[in-house]
Amino acid sequence: MEYIEKNWALFFLLVYCHEESALEELLNLKKHIARDGEVDSELIQELYMTCRVFLSKNSNQRSWTLKKDFQVPSDFDSGAWLEYRLKTSARIFLMTSLYYIAQVPESLLANSLDMTQGQLRYRLNQSLQSFGQILLKEIAS
Amino acid sequence: MWESERDISSFYYRHLLLDFVEKKLDSTTHLKMRALIDESEEYKDLLGSVLLSKEFFESISDIQYTAQSSEVLTKKSFYQNLKTLLNHSIFKMILFMALFGLCLITFLNFMEIIQWPL
Q1: How many angstroms separate the CA of residue B18 from the nearest CA in chain A?
Q2: Nearest 5°: phi and psi at B38?
Q3: 0.95 cut: is pTM over it?
Q4: pLDDT for B22-38, tens place per residue?
Q5: Which pLDDT band, with edges at 50, 70 and 90, does A32 fall under?
Q6: Fewest beta carbons less than 10 Å away: which of A28, A61, B16, B58?
Q7: Least CA distance to A77: which residue of chain B?
Q8: Which of A52, A29, A48 lies closest to A111 in space, CA to CA?
């Protein structure tokens, strides 16, 4: 898979919700890419585990830590995202983020997470439905 | 046929919503899904949720990221590495031994016990 820096920067930002940690993780990834040249299933597995550890250590994080390197549009619904991050299981949350934000191809992601593409799509479908409910609730309130 | 199929497989169709939105279904299933969504409020809501989520993920690309940040971080990580090295116990021990050796040589030179390095 081709490495696109912006996708990975956004992925780390939205998973960590902490700019400095996100940029440090991005730097680690860049070092890996410079050494090995591509994003493969081994790397995805490694990233997945790193993110899971971060999420379990910061399970009560309820706010964003943003500095100046990312410019988030004013209409971006960060509240809904944080709620989704807290309420969803880490596995589904990371799976969804890897697919929709980092844009890891379906086959590579399914292979990395040791599941079939059908199982992956089933989970993504569930994930989008539950996130949509949170977004709807935010809009209504 | 379609009625009973719909009742039995409503669970199945519910999980095809993403494929429906992303137009990955074959034309017959797509049409069945379309009919189901038109008939059922529940399906309309679920479809709305999926569409809203997808719209959110599309809007993520509006977040601006400046590549400078990682350059700053590269410099910063050099200082962080240096700091980590200075904090490392083995490094501290080597530093202590070197300083101790220097003090010992200076003392022995001062006491004229040795004349080193000359």
Answers
A1: 5
A2: -65, -35
A3: no
A4: 888 888 888 888 888 88
A5: confident
A6: B58
A7: B56
A8: A48
Each domain of chain B, given as residue ranges in start order, spans 2-62, 71-110
CATH of the domain at A55: 1.20.140
Rounded CA-CA distance B78/A44 in Å is 26
**The token pair that represents A95 in the structure block:** 């799976």
How confident is the model at residue B4, as a pLDDT? 55
Sequential DSSP letters for A27-84: HHHHHHHHHH-S--HHHHHHHHHHHHHHHHHTTT--S-B--SSEE--TT--HHHHHHH
Q: Best interface-test mutation with B: which of A129, A133, A134, A137 has the largest number of B CBs within 10 A?
A: A129
When divided into structural domains, chain A yields a total of: 1
**Listed residue (B63, B81, B91, B85) closest to A24, CA to CA:** B81
B63/A122 CB distance under 8 A: no
ipTM of this model?
A: 0.88
A11 is in which domain, residue-wise? 5-140
